[in-house]
Design a protein that fits this description.
Layout (H helix, E strand, L loop, with lengths): L7 E7 L3 H12 L6 E8 L5 H11 L3 E6 L4 H10 L5 E4 L5 E2 L3 H12 L3 E10 L10 H5 L5 E4 L2 H5 L8 E4 H6 L11 H12 L2 E14 L17 H15 L7 H18 L5 H14 L9 H10 L7 H11 L2 H16 L1
Parallel strand pairs: 1-2, 1-4, 2-3, 6-9
Antiparallel strand pairs: 4-8, 5-9, 6-8, 7-9
Length: about 350
C-alpha cells in the first residue's frame, strides 16, 4: 500500500548553526499539525549541527536527514526540494523558528482560499546584532497587501522575497521545473520570482507566524568569503529572462522583468568593488542592446530609465543610485546594501 503524502514538507538548509538549531527543530517537531515532514539538509557543517539533527531524527520519524559536502545554500535547497514529498512546501532557516500553529494556519489558508501561495507576516527579533546591520528590515518585510490578490507585476515587486513566510504548491514547482541557481547568492530572490510569476492568485495573511532572529551569525547577516558577491545579482538577470521566455510569461511580465533588471543592476553596480564597476556597466549596456527588441512592450518610463543607467553621460555611482531609488524602497535598499557591505568587508 502506497504511503500517504504528508501535507507539508518543511525544507531546512543547515550550515554551522549549532547555537540555534535545537530551538529551530523544536519549533518544527511541536507544530500543532502533525502531518508534516521536515527535510534537513546539512551542507557540510563543521560544527555539531549534524549530531543535533540526528538526535532529533532518532526521536521523530518525520525528520529526513540529508548530509552532503558543503556546496552552498542554493544546492542545499535544491536537494531539499528533490527529497520533498509533501503536497505543499514551506521553508525555515536553521537559526529561526515557527510559531506553534504556523503550519496549521498556512495549510488551512491555502486550502480554504484556493490560492497558489499564502504569505504571512514576519516577527523580526534583533539578537545582539552588530550596529552596522541594524537596517530597518521590519519595513522591508512588512505586508503591503491583505487578503486574496490576483498576481500582477506591481504585487510581485512590493512583496519581500524571503521564502520562510510562504507556503507553496509542490505541483506548481514541479510543473515549471523551478530550482535555485547553484553557486549563487540571492538564490531566494530568483526562486521567488519564478514561483510568483507562475502563480495566479495569492493570499496575504497578517499574522506574525515566523520568527526571524537577526544576529551576527544569521543566514542573512553571516559573513561569506571575501568575493564579488554583489555581481551575483547580474548573474540572476539572464536566468530570470530565460525562465520567463521558456514558459511564455515574458510578454505578461515585461515591465516586471525590466523593473527587476534596474534593481539588480543598481545593486551590483553600487556594491561592486571599484575595479568591477566598469564590468557591470558594460554588461548592463550589452544586455540591453542584445534584448532591445523586447522593449517594444515596455512602459516608456522604464525604457527611459534603462537607457539612462547605461548612458555615456551618466555620472557613475550616484546616478545609478538615483535611478535605483525610484524602483527600490529606500529602507529596503539601505538594508540590503548594509548586508552586502558587511559580507564584502569580511
Amino acid at each position: 500500500m502506497k504511503a500517504k503524502r504528508p501535507s507539508i514538507s518543511i525544507i531546512v538548509p543547515i550550515w554551522n548553526t549549532e547555537k540555534y538549531l535545537r530551538r529551530c527543530l523544536l519549533s518544527l517537531v511541536t507544530q500543532t499539525i502533525k502531518d508534516i515532514e521536515i527535510v534537513c539538509v546539512n551542507d557540510g557543517s563543521p560544527d555539531n549541527s549534524l549530531d543535533i539533527i540526528n538526535e532529533f531524527a532518532a526521536k521523530d520519524s518525520r525528520i529526513k536527514v540529508i548530509n552532503q559536502k558543503n556546496q552552498g545554500v542554493a544546492v542545499a535547497r535544491n536537494v531539499g526540494l528533490k527529497n520533498a514529498t509533501g503536497l505543499y512546501v514551506m521553508w525555515c532557516d536553521s537559526d529561526d523558528e515557527y510559531m506553534p500553529d504556523m503550519c496549521k494556519k498556512m495549510f488551512n489558508a491555502i486550502e480554504t482560499q484556493k490560492v497558489d501561495m499564502v504569505i504571512c507576516a514576519i516577527n523580526v527579533i534583533n539578537d545582539k546584532l552588530d550596529s552596522k546591520l541594524t537596517g530597518d528590515i521590519g519595513e522591508y518585510v512588512r505586508l503591503k497587501f491583505s487578503g486574496k490578490q490576483s498576481v500582477n507585476w506591481n504585487l510581485i515587486v512590493h512583496t519581500d522575497v524571503s521564502l520562510p513566510s510562504k507556503i507553496m504548491k509542490k505541483s506548481l514547482i514541479d510543473k515549471y521545473k523551478m530550482h535555485f541557481p547553484d553557486g549563487l547568492h540571492f538564490e531566494d530572490a530568483y526562486f521567488f520570482d519564478q514561483y510568483f510569476t507562475a502563480s495566479k492568485i495569492v493570499y496575504y495573511m497578517d499574522e506574525k507566524l515566523y520568527y526571524y532572529h537577526r544576529n551576527n551569525d544569521s543566514i542573512m547577516s553571516r559573513s561569506f568569503k571575501k568575493t564579488n558577491i554583489s555581481l551575483d545579482y547580474i548573474e540572476i538577470i539572464p536566468r530570470t529572462y530565460a525562465y520567463l521566455k521558456a514558459n511564455n510569461l515574458f510578454d505578461k511580465y515585461n515591465d516586471f522583468f525590466w523593473h527587476r533588471f534596474i534593481q539588480y543592476y543598481a545593486f551590483s553596480y553600487d556594491n561592486a568593488p571599484a575595479l568591477k564597476k566598469l564590468y557591470v556597466y558594460n554588461w548592463g549596456k550589452s544586455f540591453i542592446n542584445q534584448h532591445k527588441d523586447d522593449l517594444t512592450l515596455t512602459s516608456k518610463n522604464i525604457v527611459t530609465d534603462l537607457y539612462k543607467l547605461v548612458s555615456p553621460l551618466r555620472s557613475g555611482k550616484m546616478f545609478a543610485k538615483k535611478i535605483a531609488k525610484k524602483y527600490i524602497p529606500i529602507k529596503a535598499y539601505n538594508f540590503i546594501k548594509n548586508i552586502l557591505k558587511d559580507r564584502l568587508r569580511r
